[in-house]
Structures are given as C-alpha cells and as structure tokens.
Amino acid sequence: MIKKVELEITSDCNAACPGCARTLNKELLQINAFTLQDLQRIFPPADYNGVEFKFCGVLGDPITNPDCLAMTEYLLSQGAYCEYSTNGGYNTAAWWKQLGELASKYVGKLHMHFCIDGHKNTNHIYRVNTKWSVVERNIIAFSEAAPERHATWIYIVFDHNEQELVTARAHAAVLGFEFATRTGMRNSYHDWVAKIKSKTQIQQKIITTTGTKEHTKKDVIKDLDKFISEYKSHKADIQKTKEVVDSIVCKYIHEGEIFIASDQTMWPCCFLWDSAFKNKEGIMQKLNKFDPGWNSLKQHSKEEIMQHPWYTDLLTASWQPNHPLHFSRCIRTCAKNKAYHNEINYADKGISTV
Fold this sequence. Notes:
The protein is an alpha/beta fold. It has a single domain (4-184, 250-314, 342-353), classed as TIM Barrel, CATH 3.20.20. It is built from 15 helices and 12 strands. It has helices spanning 21-24, 36-42, 68-77, 93-105, 123-126, 132-145, 165-175, 185-189, 218-232, 238-246, 270-278, 283-287, 302-306, 309-317, 328-338, and strands at residues 4-7, 52-55, 81-86, 110-115, 151-156, 178-183, 192-197, 202-207, 257-260, 266-267, 343-346, 350-353. The strands form 2 sheets. A 10-stranded mixed sheet has the order 10-9-1-2-3-4-5-6-11-12. A two-stranded antiparallel ribbon has the order 7-8. Helix 4 packs parallel to helix 6 and helix 9 packs antiparallel against helix 15. The two termini are 20 Å apart.
C-alpha cells in the first residue's frame, strides 16, 4: 500500500545551488515536466485521505511547473496531504497568495518547507540566482493568506551563513512559520563552489560546513564507506555483511513510499533516481535487462510497475553485495537505520531524519 509519494513534477529550477545534481551534471540534464492531466492519469480520482504527496525531487523546484497550483488543488480535493519543498524565489505574489488560500481552505492538509539558507545577506550564496527581494515578497504573500503555521523555514547552516541564523529565526516567528535547521551528509563530506553572478562579473565562493554544523552520523557513514570498499575487494566479513544489510530501512519496502521522476519513471526512492540520472554504478545498464519502459508511467500504471519482479523480489535481494543487481547506493544511504538521511532539527521537537 502506498503511503507516501514524492513527486518531481519538473526538472526545471530557477536556482543553481552548487551542491545540486542538476548543477553538477549540466551535460546530463534534460528539462522534463508533467501536466495536471498526467498526474490525474497516474492518480485518478479516488480517496487519497492519509496519503502524503511531497512536491520535491532531485532535479527541479516544483513551483516552476505551470500546473503546480492546479495539481495541489486536485490532490487536496481528493483528501491527500501535500507538502512542498521550495526555494520560494519564483512566481508572483498573487500566485503565492492563492497557494496560501489553499492552505487555509484545506486546514492541516498543505504544508510548505521553504528552503531558505540564510537571510538578506547570505541566502543567495548557496541558493544561487535567487533574489532576496523576491523570496521575501513571496513568503510574506503566503503567510498573509495562510497565517496559521502552515509553513516551516528550513535553514541549512553553513560556515558563511551562521551569523544570520538568529535573524532568520526571528523573521520566521514574525511570519508565523516554524523554524528548523537542516544538516545534509553531502555537505559534511564536500565543500561546494558557488558561482555568484553580478552585473559585471562572476564571483566564486567556497561553501564549507565544519564543526558542530556537520551531520551527527558522519562517522557511521565513514564506516559504511569502509565496508563497501571491503566487499568490493572481497574482504568483507559475512557477519558484518548480514548486520549491515539487515539494518537497511528502505523508503519503498519498509515505509510504503514511491518516487516519480520528472520523466514519469517510477523509483523506490529519490536516491536511486539520482543514481539513474547520473548512471552511477552502471545502474541503467544493469536495469536494461528488463523490457524497455518497464518502470515508465507513460506505459504502465503504478500498480503494474509495483508487480514487476524488481519491486516484488529483486530489490531486497539486490541489497546483498554479491547480487548481480546490487547497488552500493542502497547500503550507503539507507543502512544503519537511514544514518545518511538529512537531519532536521526543530528547537521544540528535536532531530528528525528525512
């Protein structure tokens, strides 16, 4: 039974965040998007009460899709819960007012995650190409139309924006937003190079994450990286392998979640779609053993795809390192009870992982 759906309704975006897959792999990027009619075909009218639809994805920002608002209203009208993840720097104030009105109409059913990593002086450094004046205008328009805590300001704390954290937290309170900080494992492993445009030049800024801003489970992932290296060189201990594989918490298998990419292919999670986009570990060659279009929602229903052998049997079997369809991505991102996943820290709720 599907409980959660992550929708990448477009691979387009107004920003150029330096850590994003689309920025790092421009040569692979194709702009895809699906329409309201596509969504209604994939999810025909039904009782979706309790089903969570997350507008996010690997490659795009949902608010750049022209049908985004209509898709949201359609799902809400079917009883679904909708959540957005967006940089907030696109569309008009009138559009955001309409979205806020939907949040007020369907109380408790629509929640925004505004991914704003800084304030006036620093947000543009990671959220490259966004303008603070536009972001601020849009979040004000939404908050005025939906004043009852229908949004959370999610703030990735980097070395360069830590000094604006207090200002952002206070601003969120004025808007009636919840506030949380986010820590990503990739940010703890990598420094990013932001290319910030001005009227006269392009300035490069090194973005770092150090000290207490790093992911709390970085050492766990280092241990998993060592384990992956060991089994690739045939040195992994059998008991260790069993322990790691048994610790996998899969979004699809264990949590009833599916991921729909902007090209309308269906995946068990965002991580394997990210691998498919980059063709990491030769994932596309390995999956080419199946019939063309085997996971395409243009050719099959989601129910038909979930009856495919990869979903019913081979996915869990492939967690074993010696399986011909094994992808180490499954171990690195979801073993050790999802140690790799982002940490969201709410002052009043503690840390959760997503």
